[in-house]
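User: Can you help me understand a structure? I only have the sequence.
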Amino acid sequence: MNFAPHFETALPYLDFLDKYATPDQRQRWEDFRASIALTDAQRGLLESFQREMKVLVLAGTWCGDCVNQCPIFEHFADAAPQIDVRYLDRDDSPEVAAALKTCGGARVPCVVFLSEDNEFCGRYGDRTLSRYRATAGRLMGAACPTGLTPADEVTPHVIQDWLNEFERIQWMLRTSTRLRQLHGD
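Assistant: Let's start by predicting it. Here is the structure, written out as tokens:
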């Protein structure tokens, strides 16, 4: 699938929330965003990014996994102006949702990474390894039956998981022969 036209019509974070979120959903997204803090090392890594990276996020404002992950991307973009994050609503983008099915379902969030000239670089999502480990621990191991698990136990690991993927794509872009020739580096 050519993701470039979808990236062009996708919305920045606040516009996405304006269009799709109820007031309660928006508050959940913004509360989570306010709770996130990058470490100095994470911020320094992001500030070192040199190549433009287009990030297309298929999401839903109603989705708990999106609430607990998508605001992280905004912190990355704030630290690295080379990162351009845009959002598509899963239900309003059935063609993209079908192309990005995960484990047979239209799961979100799903992130597609594109180069500055819209070449596909990778995809990631719906959950990170740390989130799946925590979920598996609750489902298959000793678990609190109330389901009340403090998010701050897993969130720093989820932030790092996502940052690792953003860094992987950045290194892909930085070491690309095609892009090195284009930029003369």
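Now, to help you interpret it: The chain has one domain: 4-183. The domain at 4-183 is CATH 3.40.30.10 (Glutaredoxin). Let me know which part you'd like to focus on.
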